[in-house]
Amino acid sequence: MILPAISYHLLIDKQTLFWVKKQPQKNYCGLTTILFNINEIIKMSIHHIAVSNKYARNQRIKRQRIVWGHCLFSCLLFLLFLPSPVFSYDSSSADYKKYINRLEKQFSQYGWTDVKPGTISWEYYRTTKNKNPLIFTTFGNSKGNCVLFLGCVHGDELPTVYLMFKLAHYVKDNPALFKDKCIVIAPIVNPDGFLATPPTRVNASGVDLNRNFPTKDWQASAIRKWVAKGGKKRYSPGAKPGSEQETQFQLALIKRFKPQKILSVHSPLNFFDYDGPSSDLNSFEHWLEKISKETNHPWKKFGYYPGSLGNYAGHERNIFTLTLELPSSDPRHGNMYFQKFQPSILKFINLPIVGSLPNIKR
């Protein structure tokens, strides 16, 4: 008599549990069934009740564990998809201070005594393979028409670092000029390469960050073209597109701020280069020709590579993307380059873009 009763009770208990779970809107019938089961249990022997209670207790513990597991999993998902500032690193942490101190020491060696990394309010959410923060800062109150500045994509292009820090200081010291703007500055995209001895073009994983963007032609062409040109380590596109934290950092900035204009500073090819939409290209060329004459700095259509920023942002996403190639990579020329290109950089910030195309207002 006991075993059949136990089997019957277990069967009804499971059916009731799943029935109520799947159809909570009809739980009145479910409660009636539960009450019926309880009434039947009371009629059973003390031994049967003891066995049933033990089973119920075990099931209750199981259900509690499942509920807690679901709660924990839901909390993790909730935190995962919150906006990125939730995961901002503490700028007062020992690692951050150590990084800023290293930069200040390096700047001093290059004679950059007029730029102070610690006086700028930086944000960072990612670190590199060598645990260096990938920092950026924002200025202005506008939520639209953002301009993104990128420096030191290649770690051995030293004066690009000075230009970006000097620009950050200038914008910070003149807030009234930029209050209606949206300016984002990432001065050192490749800190591992910059802080290496000697500095290297590639990051700590040996990847050229300007060949690692997930462009549409990466899978078909990036590695093949790299090998065809000799497979030099300094131009390695990496094992797969977007594999590097530094690349993900740039992608995150583009996704978060949706810039209409990007200025990436490089050296030492000595020209302006443009990648972006071809609509109304003549008016843009007139603007760039004017800037070229004012700075005595040539411009050319250099083209783009699989995995390059110009390809990803300019060609594929129609973002107005300009590359400033400085005349040399000599860190001693940093201040001279800033003085030379500051006016054109400010004009770039103020350049009106209608929609996502380079329709320049004259």
Helix and strand string, N-terminal first?
HHHHEEEHHEHHHEEHEHEH
| Second rung of CATH, namely the architecture of the largest domain | 3-Layer(aba) Sandwich
Radius of gyration: 30 Å
CATH class descriptor name of the largest domain: Alpha Beta
Mean pLDDT: 82
Work out the strand percent. 5-15%
**CATH topology grouping of the largest domain:** Aminopeptidase
Please name the fourth-level CATH homologous superfamily of the largest domain. Answer: Zn peptidases
Main pleated-sheet profile: 8 strands, mixed
| Helical content band | 40-55%
Give structural notes.
With 362 residues, the chain is of the alpha/beta class. Helix content is 48%, strand content 11%. It has an 8-stranded mixed β-sheet with strand order 1-2-4-3-5-8-6-7, sandwiched between helices. A hairpin with a 5-residue loop joins β1 (123-127) and β2 (133-139). α1 (2-22) packs antiparallel against α2, α1 packs parallel to α3 and α5 (159-173) crosses α12. It starts with a helix and ends in a 12-residue tail after the last helix.
